[in-house]
Write a structure and sequence with these properties.
Helices cover about 55% and strands about 20% of the residues. The protein contains 3 helices and 3 strands; from the N terminus they run H-E-E-E-H-H. It binds zinc ion (ZN).
Length: about 100
């Protein structure tokens, strides 16, 4: 993964959520060493996702996929069964995106 793939993935995630009426902001920032990303509800159907500025592009893409799972689950900060379902949806979108990248 590189910078272009990372930004491409952000834009795919934003478009995907927009179709569901959900908006997000994504920014790179300093997070604790053991945290690669987090998400916070800011307003109704608006979430802020933060990705560690120390994460490699591979890890940043992974973290965004993980946080997309949380956003689809309402950012409950849990990794229970409903998050699992949402994460599967997020991962399926990621797999489709990677496939499309490889076809180019
Ligand atoms: Zn999580």
């Amino acid at each position: 993964m590189n910078r272009m793939v990372y930004h491409g993935w952000i834009s795919v995630v934003k478009t995907y959520l927009k179709e569901k009426g959900i908006h997000i902001s994504v920014r790179r920032t300093r997070l604790p060493p053991d945290v690669e990303g987090d998400c916070t509800p800011v307003a109704e159907d608006f979430y802020r996702i933060r990705i560690s500025r120390d994460a490699t592009y591979d890890k940043a893409c992974e973290a965004l996929t993980h946080e997309l799972g949380h956003v689809l689950d309402g950012c409950l900060h849990e990794h229970g069964p409903s998050w699992g379902v949402s994460y599967s949806e997020a991962y399926a979108l990621w797999a489709k995106f990677v496939e499309a990248c490889n076809e180019q």
